Amino acid sequence: MTRTRLYHDGSLKLEDFPVGDISDYIAEPGSTVWLDVRDPESADFEMIAEEFGLHALAVEDARNDHQRPKLDRYRTHLFLAAYAVDVDPQTGAMSTGEVAAFITHNALITIRKGPHCDIDHIVERWDENPDLAKHGVGFLVHGLLDYLVDTHFKAVQLLDERIEDLEDLLFEDSAKEISQVQRTSYELRKSLVKLRRVVLPMREVVNSLIRRDVQVVNEGLMPYYQDVYDHVLRATEWTESLRDLVTTVMETNLTVQGNRMNMIMKKVTSWAAIIAVPTAVTGFYGQNVPFPGFGSHVGFWTSTSLMIVLSVLLYFSFKRRDWI
């Protein structure tokens, strides 16, 4: 599946034209071409490499999955690897969509893997700012990066909300709630670790694009890239703080469970001590030897009185010490 666009002198001229016509359009001065390929096959990579003269190492990186977010520089083009992120608002589970992009002086080629990178949202950003199209390929790259960083930001926000909900369950006594806190905290920690791997390298990616020697971002686009860079920094700092927060939640949950277990053991031990007193009295009076009151009602009432009095004394003694 491919999509194409042609911008000429800052205006959108054509959409969804045949890929074979790209060579003619990129040769025209003032033209900027966008080509998008979703889930490409080997033939697609060969076509792209031949059409745009791409370096073999860059094409190999685009073929291989699970690349680290990065920006590689070659003689005639740049290679960008990044990820769109999606978080399930119910479970906090995170999924990613890998995006590889080749950036030449007048063309942007995007290669998407999986369904999690919605190209329509990127196209909408381009259409919402047609006045920026005059800046050429830097305008297209900005729309792509702005969308990807926004998915990171939304993912961090959703995870933050999930952690807040989790904090409300920390001091619940229900066994179901305790189990939910454990499962959810581990799921959120796993999602944050994955998100950190995606978000943290983007700081260097955007920073490298802003550099003047890369010659992708001109003065007119610099404020827009600075805004994207600011969002990257905020998402990175937010992710780091959430990792610390979810770790604190997990530690607090263990502490609360430990305190709850100590309270239960304290109560069980106190009741066991109370029960031990009548057991000791009955054991003593159950000896097969004569004792005061042996064989008469006096012995029965004496033992019963001892059990009641000692048990009550122990109960109020433990109650005063908050052991029961």
Main pleated sheet: 7 strands, mixed
Q: What gyration radius follows from the Cα positions, in whole Å?
A: 35 Å
Helix and strand string, N-terminal first?
EEHEHHEEEEHHHHHH
Strand percentage lies at: 15-25%
- The appropriate CATH architecture of the largest domain is 2-Layer Sandwich
Overall mean pLDDT = 84
Helix content range of the residues, please? Answer: 55-70%
The general outline is rod-shaped
Pfam family, one: CorA
Transmembrane segments: 268-286, 298-318
GO molecular function, one term: cobalt ion binding
Organism: Kitasatospora viridis
Itemize the secondary structure elements and their pairings.
Layout: E1 2-8, E2 11-15, H1 22-26, E3 31-38, H2 42-52, H3 56-63, E4 70-73, E5 78-87, E6 94-103, E7 107-113, H4 119-128, H5 137-168, H6 175-199, H7 202-210, H8 222-285, H9 297-320
What does this structure look like?
With 324 residues, this protein is an alpha+beta fold. The chain has 2 domains: 256 residues, 2-Layer Sandwich (Beta Polymerase, domain 2); 56 residues. It is 58% helix and 16% strand. The protein has 9 helices and 7 strands, in the order ββαβααββββαααααα. The chain has a 7-stranded mixed β-sheet with strand order 2-1-3-7-6-5-4, with helices on both faces. Strand 5 and strand 6 form a beta hairpin. Helix 4 packs across helix 5, helix 6 runs antiparallel to helix 8 and helix 7 runs antiparallel to helix 8. The protein is rod-shaped, with a radius of gyration of 35 Å. It is found in: Cell membrane. Its main location: membrane. This is Magnesium transporter. Keywords: Cell membrane, Membrane, Transmembrane, Transmembrane helix, Transport.
